[in-house]
Specification:
By secondary structure, the protein is of the alpha/beta class. It is built from 23 helices and 24 strands. Helices cover about 35% and strands about 20% of the residues.
């Protein structure tokens, strides 16, 4: 018996015991079989697995569509005592046909678990056929994933909606994406796409442009008159959401679909959190942001603007107003202060990067002069420099203490900034702000050399004595990080903080703090990450809040179990060699349309225009539909 990776000896699934199920006894997936209890009936395992595999077949190719159906029927006949010995050979041949002739992983990898059972336990199958005894169905659950799904924090069913785009069913594609996020168009424009880093097409000729495909589906519906339809049975129970960023909106959305009455409390005069005041409009147009937020609210979500936790209301106020739970997702709206001399002197011409972007977004007056220096290496720094260009600044310089390869910002964003006229001075670090009569006049910098690897996994910056020099400027923007504003916690001693009081401590699984009924998610829980991570937190927290309100307890779901198992076993091998007979190479990814540099640097119109209709269909056809199935069998109860 082949046992993949010997994982049976190291899996700890005790946390996932659930009512109605005992311990896991066997696992079947696209890699083979893991028998944790050899007493499991091998024929029943094969039957249950093949039936689940058949559900995944899309019907495009005959071997998978017909083969899985025939194989399922044979296994059902064996379990019902209606088969003959020749049927076992037919079953094995069907599996070989499916494996050798199918067009996607459902067929060309899926049946391996069944062939392994037949080859290693042939006698069990023959005995079942000869005895004609009825084989009862065991207790099992099944779930499918794909490398891209596994790489996505929000676990969007990416192959499903790509397939719908390929067929021109854009509204259906958007509906599929919205099962896992209320913000598909926003993610199509702003996500750092970890799904694409997990795309098996990269092993052939290049990753699929997943985000751009999702964006096209959202845009196609956005520019139509199609209205979303909801079938919500309200339970009248109120829940409070603090913050209207991606975590807050997602939590409110899923709670509303469950029937709750979410009310969002937002400190800003606008909805959207950092999506509205932290992402420049040339990346995320206001009209589209408003459209997707409006879609979320149209489910029946109420909101209140200019309501800051700790100033206008308290958590205790909410509980006294009969809110059953509170979800805090206030985001990271405060720029990080690293103590640079002059940064605390209230200088004219000094800006905190996060506040700078917020003031621009809200239309507040900004005067940065003709030359600005920006310190930082993340996406906020890049957003600041590209924004400064659009405000008419003639010379924009980004100083960063490491090399370009070590910048946290997306490489594409850096290269785009250079095209727009931004200069990057690498291995350069500001040491103080040069001022005169309370006005920024320049920055004193020092040259840097790179040392050994530090705890961040990058080479450490080391100042080079005697290399100090001054750079003149009209304004200096510090964009070296952002943290949540946790001032509201002074009245909540029950809620603990960590990482030098920059995040709130909560249970990783439940999202609940030490204060019963108070949940957290997004940047305030993880530190600044991304919209897709915040979407995941909001969705997961909504599920736990629902459990808490209904039962007062928390139980891991089937999805939790499978997510754990997929991580343990591994879904995507970047060194995998793919047969080019099934997927010919030489089909590179489509390129999106961009606004020309000369017509975009003096305004905030959207730069990236997405894919054309022809290109998006072509790009969708590049998807290899890499669905992987896993079936978990539980011990029989006596």
């Amino acid at each position: 018996m082949k046992i993949i990776d010997k994982i049976g000896s190291r899996l700890d699934v005790s946390y996932f015991k659930k009512s109605g199920h005992a311990d896991i006894s066997s696992i079947l997936n696209w890699k083979g079989v893991v028998l944790l209890d050899d007493r499991d009936n091998k024929v029943d395992l094969a039957r249950c697995y093949m039936q689940e595999l058949q559900k995944l077949s899309c019907g495009v190719c005959t071997p998978c569509m017909i083969g899985t159906s025939v194989a399922s029927d044979i296994l059902e006949h064996i379990c019902n005592g209606q088969a003959i010995l020749k049927d076992l050979d037919r079953l094995r041949n069907q599996c070989d046909w499916i494996l050798s002739s199918s067009k996607c992983t459902v067929g060309n990898m899926g049946p391996l678990a069944v062939t392994e059972l037949i080859d290693d336990f042939k006698q069990d199958f023959e005995n079942a056929i000869i005895s004609k005894e009825f084989i009862p169905r065991g207790d099992y659950i099944a779930h499918s994933t794909a490398p891209c799904i596994n790489g996505c924090p929000s676990k969007l069913d990416i192959p499903d909606w790509i397939e719908r785009v390929r067929d021109g069913r854009f509204e259906d594609a958007l509906e599929s994406a919205r099962r896992s996020t209320p913000l598909p168009g926003i993610l199509g424009r702003t996500c750092f796409h970890p799904c694409q880093d997990n795309c098996r097409r990269a092993n052939v000729d290049g990753t699929i442009q997943i985000c751009l495909i999702r964006r096209f589906a959202a845009d196609s519906v956005f520019y139509s008159d199609i209205k979303p339809k909801f079938a919500i049975k309200s339970n009248g129970i109120k829940v409070a959401i603090i913050g209207s960023g991606p975590a807050g909106l997602s939590c409110a959305y899923y709670l509303r679909l469950m029937g709750y009455k979410p009310v969002i409390f937002e400190a800003l005069p606008v909805l959207g959190g950092m999506m509205t005041v932290g992402i420049p409009k040339y990346r995320l147009p206001q009209e589209f942001l408003d459209k997707e937020i409006g879609y979320t609210l149209s489910t029946g979500i109420d909101y209140k603007l200019n309501q800051r936790l700790g100033r206008d209301f308290t958590v205790q106020d909410l509980f006294e107003q009969d809110f059953k739970t509170v979800f805090i997702a206030v985001g990271a709206h405060r720029g990080q202060n690293i103590g640079l001399p002059g940064s605390d002197d209230n200088l004219k011409g000094f800006y905190d990067g996060v506040k700078f972007l917020r003031d621009v977004a809200l239309g507040n007056k900004i005067d940065i002069g003709d030359k600005v220096i920006i310190e930082g290496g993340g996406n906020v720094a890049v957003d600041c420099c590209r924004t400064a260009i659009r405000l008419g600044c003639k010379e924009v310089i980004v100083v960063y203490r490491r090399s370009k390869e070590q910048m946290p910002a997306a490489l594409y964003e850096i290269d785009t900034a250079v095209k727009e006229g931004v200069r990057f001075d690498f291995l350069t670090n500001p040491v103080s702000i040069v001022q005169e009569d309370g006005v920024v006049k320049g920055v004193e910098c020092i040259k840097i050399k790179l040392g050994g690897i530090d705890k961040s996994g990058r080479r450490s910056p080391i100042e080079m004595p005697g290399t100090n020099f001054n750079m003149e400027c009209d304004s200096f923007i510090m964009a070296v990080g952002q943290v949540p504003d946790l001032d509201f916690l002074k009245d909540l001693p029950q809620i603990k903080t960590a990482n030098r009081d920059r995040i709130i401590v909560a249970d990783k699984f439940t999202h609940m703090t030490d204060m019963p009924g108070v949940f957290v998610g997004g940047d305030i829980l993880t530190g600044p990450l991304s919209i897709v991570d915040s979407n995941r937190d909001g969705k997961n927290a909504a599920r736990r809040m629902d459990q808490y309100i209904r039962t007062g307890t928390f139980e891991p779901t089937d999805d939790c179990l499978f997510e754990y198992l997929f991580e343990e076993i591994g879904v995507y091998d970047k060194k995998e060699v793919i047969d080019y007979t099934d997927f010919p190479e030489g089909n590179p990814a489509a390129k999106q349309v961009e606004e020309p540099v000369e017509t975009r640097i003096d305004n905030f119109k959207e730069v990236d225009k997405g894919l054309t209709s022809d290109d998006v269909i072509y790009e969708a056809t590049r998807c290899m539909r890499c669905y992987f199935l896993m079936l978990v069998k539980f011990e029989e109860r006596s």
